[in-house]
RNA sequence: GCUGGAAUCGUCUAGUGGCAAUGACAAGAGACUGUAAAUCUCUCGCCUUCGGGCUUCGUAGGUUCGAGUCCUACUUCCAGCA
């Protein structure tokens, strides 16, 4: 069983430590989205330097390229990517939602590869096998995200997710036994809570997931901050408190991180910070700015004063503006360093504030400034 | 000097009788939440009560119901010949 220590609580919020075979994660923590075994535009050394504790890769993408066997041959995701720290994998379930032309059945999901059109299928069993081959520390159960927000679809997706969870757990048990026999490091399974915007379904899903006694929990299918805090309150009041909870995919907006942590989530991942960085939308304590705007052409101040990331310590807004306008690769690198640092650091600060009992003040002060515009 | 060719939005460009005029770039702005995203969307002559109105394709005339498109002259540029 995955070891998780809680150091301090504040209502549903908690500060803790997840102990993985590749090291500790001090929570709450922001996990970098490394979909294809890389955080776009950043090296793993840069990720370490900016303070990232863990990364999350995507099973779907790694199955397609380079193939999970190759990652196993390389010695696993951490070694392959030179990350050397704790790793998560997403199951591929999200792609059911995000890709066109997927055929979903009780057995699993059939896709055509978006790369070469090859037919391709993920089942709960194959997702588990793939994640074990990838060798991430923490796996997500293969779940089903509804394509619409209708109650009927949500309910159906939730029930399917539960049925698949049973199969994921069974397969995981086999694979764990095999690994144990071969003296290989442990890998852990998170069940994923679904139920969409319907809190009674969320409650039902949380109970079901908890009953399966997984190592932790993912909370999935969240696409908007509307009602999220209340939903998390419902879910995290039901989930056993001695196991870690990962809020899947949320964290582009700082308020999501605060609301998530406040309501009992321990880790987060989100593609938003790096995607927005590549597109020139950069975080500051006073809100996001678009560095491509002409008003920054002559702005020789650092992107965000007081920020101690490599970008802010060394470069000006005018320089970043120039790099973006001339489409230099360095623009995306520096911007990604900053944005990733910003969210990682913000969640680290949330952790500190929980530890010293100042979370509520920190949240109020941060959000009123960030969203003051 | 002669003979050809060319002049269209900041730039390059489409356009051969119905056109406020094509595409690209540049410029201006917006979006982005378990990444088919170094992507996508909008604006880009002037004015607008969003119906439309006005002024445009080197300059000046002309033909025509109608001209960026045809004709004449001029200006500038390019090529060849002197």
Automatic annotation (TrEMBL):
Cofactor: how and how many bound: Binds 1 zinc ion per subunit.
Pathway: tRNA modification; tRNA-queuosine biosynthesis
EC number(s) from the headed UniProt entry: 2.4.2.29
Glycosyltransferase found in the keyword field: yes
Reactions catalysed according to its record: 7-aminomethyl-7-carbaguanine + guanosine(34) in tRNA = 7-aminomethyl-7-carbaguanosine(34) in tRNA + guanine
Cofactor: Zn(2+)
Residues noted as binding Zn(2+) in the record, renumbered to the chain: 307, 309, 312, 338
Active site: 90, 269
Domain annotation tRNA-guanine(15) transglycosylase-like: ranges: 11-371
UniProt keyword annotation of Glycosyltransferase present: yes
Positions with a binding annotation for substrate: 90-94, 143, 194, 221
Region annotation RNA binding: where it falls in the sequence: 274-278
Family stated for the protein in its record: Belongs to the queuine tRNA-ribosyltransferase family.
Subunit structure: Homodimer. Within each dimer, one monomer is responsible for RNA recognition and catalysis, while the other monomer binds to the replacement base PreQ1.
Function: Catalyzes the base-exchange of a guanine (G) residue with the queuine precursor 7-aminomethyl-7-deazaguanine (PreQ1) at position 34 (anticodon wobble position) in tRNAs with GU(N) anticodons (tRNA-Asp, -Asn, -His and -Tyr). Catalysis occurs through a double-displacement mechanism. The nucleophile active site attacks the C1' of nucleotide 34 to detach the guanine base from the RNA, forming a covalent enzyme-RNA intermediate. The proton acceptor active site deprotonates the incoming PreQ1, allowing a nucleophilic attack on the C1' of the ribose to form the product.
Protein name: Queuine tRNA-ribosyltransferase
Native organism: Candidatus Nanosyncoccus alces
Lineage: Bacteria, Candidatus Saccharimonadota, Candidatus Nanosyncoccalia, Candidatus Nanosyncoccales, Candidatus Nanosyncoccaceae
